[in-house]
TrEMBL record:
Entries under InterPro entries matching the protein: KH_dom-like_a/b (IPR015946), KH_dom_type_2 (IPR004044), KH_sf_prok-type (IPR009019), Ribosomal_S3_C_sf (IPR036419), Ribosomal_uS3 (IPR057258), Ribosomal_uS3_bac-typ (IPR005704), Ribosomal_uS3_C (IPR001351), Ribosomal_uS3_CS (IPR018280)
Pfam families listed in its UniProt record: KH_2, Ribosomal_S3_C
Keywords, alphabetical: Ribonucleoprotein, Ribosomal protein, RNA-binding, rRNA-binding
Chain segments annotated as coiled-coil in the UniProt record: none
Name under which the protein is recorded: 30S ribosomal protein S3
């Protein structure tokens, strides 16, 4: 039998990096619980903001939360009030998780919002868009075809695959349907594969959505020249 590996986890340190950028053996358990709680809160709070990634960096006592989104205006709000409100909610989430272990989090937490300009080449954003359309009861075959055409039109994309699984169209039996276009070398470690998995919650149950996007190969010499 064949074994499946998560494309991002397989390429950590090669063409992908970690979403939690810190290492502290003394407070590892507390920091890990805080990261999971913050990501769970932000994924629910910013469901409509098309968030690509949530990166958490820690340096000493300073904590930085970086949110990459295709719709930064929904997060920033008028006059930046949305960022400050979201920061307060993150602080409350960390305090509920760690209690007295995070006494200075009020002053040590920093929140950054970055804009994603090409959302068509982001697997996370594409997967969220597919899930939103499924929740609106649009035909899944039309969604797959339209998504493949939209992503393939980006010149940076060399290949794409979109798969949905569940009670598609309200059928009695669950099944898996997918469409692909271009190349998708999943066994090549230097291939830059962007992968995302989300769930669409419909009247017939949860439908899983997976998106793979191939953006070419990554070479260390090429990265040094670009830097």
């Amino acid at each position: 039998m064949g074994n499946k590996a998560q494309p991002i986890g397989l390429r950590l340190g090669i063409s992908a990096t970690w979403s939690s950028r810190w290492f502290d053996p003394r407070h590892f358990r507390r920091y890990l619980k805080e990261d999971i709680a913050v990501r769970d809160f932000l994924s629910k709070r910013l469901k409509t903001a098309e968030v690509e990634s949530i990166i958490i960096e820690r340096s000493g006592k300073k904590t930085t939360v970086i949110i990459s989104t295709a719709r930064p205006g929904l997060i920033i709000g008028r006059g930046g009030g949305g960022v400050e409100e979201l920061r307060r909610h993150i602080i409350d989430t960390i305090k509920k998780t760690s209690g007295q272990d995070a006494p200075n989090i009020d002053t040590d937490l920093r929140l950054e919002v970055q804009e994603v300009r090409h959302g068509e080449s982001s697997a996370a954003i594409v997967a969220q868009q597919v899930a939103d359309q499924l929740e609106k009861r649009q035909p899944f075959r039309r969604i797959l075809k339209r998504t493949i055409e939209k992503v393939s039109s980006d010149p940076k994309v060399h290949g794409v695959k979109v798969a949905v699984a569940g009670r598609l169209g309200g059928s009695e039996m669950s099944r898996r349907e997918w469409l692909s276009s271009g190349r998708l070398p999943l066994h090549t470690l230097r291939a830059n594969i962007d992968f995302a998995q989300v769930h669409a919650y419909t009247a017939w149950g949860a439908i899983g959505v997976k998106v793979w996007i191939y953006k070419g190969e990554v070479f260390k010499e090429k990265e040094k020249k670009e830097e």
